[in-house]
Design goal:
CATH topology of the domain at 26-142: 2,3-Dihydroxybiphenyl 1,2-Dioxygenase, domain 1
CATH class of the domain at 26-142: Alpha Beta
Distance between the termini: 20 Å
Structural class: alpha+beta
Helix content: 10-25%
Shape: globular
Length: 242
């Protein structure tokens, strides 16, 4: 889990390495993450990482797997630098109804000319941007999900509402055990375009999401100990280059 601060008040990304998967086919479902950080822009320039300017003080770059990041070339704010996550949708009014009326997000901006809408649960939190792509949403083979935490006692009501509205429930409310840690309750939904959404009971989740002071050290060790090249060679398969 990587981010600019604790999960209590910061957006984080979960990175998962799957052995046996040499490459992913990206779809048009995930359109990118936008974050504000002049340091990120200068880091990319210093390292020679591909970077293209797409607007005033706005740059586009890509992670090794092709996931897009939009970097706002301004000083990193004291709050979360991650401004928004952008998803492609096929019917903007329908998606706005789902995310605002059913999931309770606030519609903060809507631009019919650009076919976009900006929603959020709070002013200081990372926002969700819905972008009408005027076509079918293709999830490719690399899609993931967005997760939110909320008070545990809201989960049964959320599940009941989705049943009443005949919405897609991928995983009904369930308890998940974590050895040596808290047991969390989750319900996993899918919006009209199949974007997966996980709601987690906040009380237990806060115990699981504490920052590990050895996080950077463990990450470096994990990469140093990586045996994936050996795995692919043993199975006579080609590993995609980053």
């Amino acid at each position: 889990m990587v981010g600019f601060g604790p999960e209590d008040d910061h957006f984080v990304a979960e990175l998962t390495y799957n052995y046996g998967v040499a490459e992913y086919q990206l779809g048009n479902d995930f359109l990118g993450i936008t974050l504000q950080s002049s340091q990120a822009v200068s880091n990319a320039k210093r390292l020679g990482w591909p970077l293209s300017q797409v607007g005033e003080a706005l740059y586009l770059t890509q992670a090794p797997g092709g996931f897009r990041f939009y970097l706002v070339d301004k000083e990193q704010p004291p709050t979360d630098p991650v401004q928004k996550v952008s998803l492609g949708v096929s019917d903007l009014p329908k998606s706005i109804h789902y995310w605002s009326k059913l999931l309770g997000m606030t519609l903060m901006e809507r631009n019919d000319d650009q076919k976009t809408a900006l929603l959020g649960f709070g002013d200081t939190q990372c926002k969700l941007e819905l972008h009408d792509i005027s076509g079918t949403v293709n999830h490719g083979t690399a899609f993931g999900r967005i997760a939110f935490s909320c008070p545990r006692d809201q989960l049964p009501d959320l599940e009941a509402l989705m049943k009443k509205e005949n919405q897609n429930i991928l995983t009904p409310l369930v308890s998940l055990d974590t050895p040596g840690k808290a047991t969390v309750e989750v319900v996993i939904l899918a919006d009209p375009d199949g974007h997966e959404i996980c709601f987690v009971g906040d009380e237990a989740f806060r115990q699981l999401s504490l920052v590990d002071p050895r996080g950077n050290e463990l990450l470096d060790k994990g990469m140093a100990d990586d045996k994936s090249n050996e795995w692919f060679a043993k199975h006579n398969r080609q590993k995609a280059a980053a």
